[in-house]
Amino acid sequence: MKKLDLIKCALYDTLPYRNHLDIKGNFGLEIEMSLINEKDKRYLLNDKLIEMGYYDSFDDSMLYCIPFEIATPKLMDCTFTWKSLEELSNRMKDCELNFDYAAFQVNLDSNLTELELYHLVLFFRSFEHIIFKFSRGYDTDLRVMKYARSLKDFLLYNDLEERNHYALRKLMWNKRFAIALKNDKPYRQELPVTFVSFRTPNSSDDCFLWQNYVNTFYHLLHSVKNLDLDFIDDRLCHNGKARGKSSAILHLDDAITFSNMIFDKDMDKIYFLKHYIGSDEKEVKENIKTLTL
After folding, report:
1. Is the peptide bond before 192 cis (omega within 30 degrees of 0)?
2. Structure pTM?
């Protein structure tokens, strides 16, 4: 599809919640929130979910008066998984919750080589202005990113230009940057990596948005094996004084370039663009006739 057609579909088409995403391997979610009524913990994390392996993953980095975090077990892309998450989403909508400082984390199985992990970090940084805006969902702003900082801050002090093995290990089990690399040895800074955590999204009670986060980060991760390295902005990644584009404003052409790089199917691109445009939908609709893409 042409670029303008993709945008129009993202704006005007009815996009259903899906029962299947065509992704391989396991994934897990961590959903933060602030409770107004502590009794809602039992309602949200009910016996059915507990039996399935969902659990309360309290994190003392959360900034709320009644912090609550639901962590899922390893999940598979199937109808049962998405129906269960939809039920949880509906229960969350029944409660009075606050998401002002809340994060949503996607953990994905990974078998990337060390070289591919370098490329992942540099690719993510090159399109960080797109990924961060997409991670707002429907919100007008990103939450406080104290525990999911830009990889700019990582690359300022850790030189990956020479494929620095020690520098890459500093992303293992961290709670500071937009990406965390993890293995099956909790809190051990050892390669290889067995899963990657994407820490940027704003939390919400919307399973449609959760699903889109999973789909996008999965395809981002798996696109690295066939990555066109010409799209990595070496100056941005390796020069601490280089300034990137702001995630606070629209960069639709870059967003479509990014979606073309990670997705094969137009429908996945449309779903991605819907949440990339997000709260700027009105602005895009008003200016769609003058878009020169």
Report:
1. yes
2. 0.94
